[in-house]
Amino acid sequence: MEENNEKAEIYSQRVRAGKRTYFFDVKSTRSNDFYVTITESKRKFKDDEFSYEKHKIFLYKEDFVKFMEALQGTIDHVKSELLTEEALASLENPTVSSELPVAVAEAEVSFDEELKWE
Predict the structure, then answer these.
(1) No. of H helices and E strands in the chain?
(2) What DSSP string describes 16-64?
(3) Model confidence over 18-43: pLDDT tens digits?
């Protein structure tokens, strides 16, 4: 009998960022537990063909709080210590291209919002 190594996917969210795409996926284990994978996929051009370079992080539920705190602390440090007021303002209010639908512009998340697991 062949064993299926694919884990059941419960939820997936994609974030496009230039040449990179990030995937946030919730998957279940055989014992009906769950974990999160964060995948960075970067499009590469080689030998007249496109390929994708992928890097993946597995995040287990017992580490969610520590991970969120570290990520929020890192973002807060960049915002308060490394970015100029002008750079921070441009990130918080990006110029929306006229080609993007209004719904996309309205769906942008402010950097003032804290990370939250719901």
Answers:
(1) 3, 4
(2) EETTEEEEEEEEE-TTS-EEEEEEEEEEEEETTEEEEEEEEEEEEGGGH
(3) 889 999 999 998 898 999 999 999 98
Residue corresponding to tokens 């490394």: 82
Tokens 């929020």 found at: 72
Q: What is the C-alpha separation between 23 and 36, in angstroms, rounded? A: 10
- Rounded to whole angstroms, the Cα distance separating 53 from 108 reads 26
Assign residue 40 a region (left: φ > 0; alpha: ψ between -120 and 50; beta: otherwise).
beta
**Neighbouring residues of 37: CB distance < 8 A, sequence distance ≥ 6:** 23, 24, 25, 27, 56, 57, 58, 59
Please report, to the nearest 10 degrees, the dihedral formed by the alpha carbons of residues 71, 75, 81, 85 taken in order.
180
CA proximity to 20, closest of 37, 39, 43, 4: 43
pLDDT-based confidence at residue 8 (cuts at 50, 70, 90): confident
23 and 39 in contact (C-beta within 8 Å)? yes
